[in-house]
Design goal:
Number of strands: 11
Oligomer: single chain
Largest sheet: 8 strands, antiparallel, barrel
């Protein structure tokens, strides 16, 4: 089994080309080749092959307004009901992340909701079904790192810096605290929406989809990129990168250590999500590592000395839903 998995791991060059796209979703083959020491023709050929095979996708991320918060859910499901509950959750647009535990009886998910609201999914819909044994919800208080921030650790710091565009923040509003959508007009929003499923779509394709001239699309995309409004994420199965273990860590951290530990974890190469939350476990981290020994070292060595009081480790058996990825069929609705 392990040998079969290793055969599916991409070679080092392809992994570096994928990591380059994480730095800039609309990176040119010429720039990538210059920084990584690969011919632009090879870069273009490998990106095209990886995309055609469905190994890699670059998607555009929607801008979330400040009025939308998140809950981290842990849902215990009765035997035989896992598939139905999972599919029902996956069909919801307000549930962007769903993982199944290796034990097969627990779902962890992220639900988007108004901060401080009495969420209908948590308080009414899930408890009302006879398929659910228990539900716990923790409100996200602070985001240290999200999946789109994760960078595969195969580039040098200098390479990553050279490949990452330097965003210029948009001009501040009168109160000096612009909302995420401030400064976006209908043309910007149409272009961002057209790039949602393929953030590397050429200007001509975006122009054809939106009806705006090529020149307008090119100019707007350049401005959105420069202002940090065009946010992209590389969608790739971590197992193809040699990262076979997916786990969620739920930690108890004293308040005076919480911010420090969260920031340290946000910079850890294995962490693709770190959040301060309500509840007894007040710091959550999602990690990808090569094997169980690497996970053991992360917990016993990397967390050592940071002031973490306790850690619960939950292994992910299947990543059901993440941005750009859905691995279960949706239930038909009337």
């Amino acid at each position: 089994m392990a040998d079969h998995l290793n055969e599916d791991v991409l070679d080092h060059r392809d992994q570096r080309l994928i990591a380059a796209l994480q730095c800039d979703g609309r990176l040119s083959a010429e720039k990538a080749g210059e920084v990584l020491g690969v011919s632009p023709r090879t870069v273009h050929r490998r990106w095209r092959a990886l995309g055609a095979d469905g190994v890699v996708r670059v998607i555009g991320l929607p801008t979330r307004p400040d009025s939308v918060g998140a809950l981290l859910l842990r849902i215990k499901v009765l035997k035989g009901k896992l598939d139905a509950v999972t599919a029902a959750l996956a069909a919801r647009p307000d549930v962007p992340f769903i993982d199944l535990s290796t034990s097969g009886d627990e779902i962890t998910a992220v639900s988007l909701t108004a901060p401080g609201s009495r969420d209908h999914l948590v308080f009414r819909q899930l408890p009302a079904t006879q398929a659910v044994a228990s539900v716990s919800a923790a409100t996200v208080l602070h985001v240290f790192a999200e999946a789109s921030d994760w960078r595969h650790d195969v580039l040098t710091a200098d390479e990553r810096a050279a490949l990452t565009p330097q965003a210029t923040p948009p001009a501040p509003t009168i109160d000096d605290a612009p909302a995420p959508t401030a400064g976006l007009d209908p043309v910007d929003r149409d272009i961002l929406d057209a790039l949602r499923d393929d953030a590397r779509a050429p200007a001509a394709a975006v122009a054809a989809r939106t009806g705006y001239p090529d020149s307008t699309v090119r100019r707007r995309v350049a401005r959105l990129t420069e202002n940090g409004r065009l946010l992209t994420q590389v969608v790739v199965d971590p197992r193809r990168l040699g990262l076979f273990i997916d786990a969620n860590l739920m930690m108890r951290v004293p308040p005076d250590h919480l911010d420090k530990v969260g920031r340290v974890l946000a910079g850890h190469p294995a962490v693709h999500g770190a959040f301060a939350t309500t509840g007894a476990a007040n710091l959550h981290a999602a990690v990808w590592v090569r094997g169980l020994e690497d996970l053991y070292r992360l917990v016993t060595r990397d967390l050592s000395g940071l002031g973490v009081g306790a850690v619960e480790t939950l292994l992910v058996g299947q990543a059901v839903k993440r941005p750009g990825v859905l691995t279960v069929p949706l239930l038909k609705t009337a």
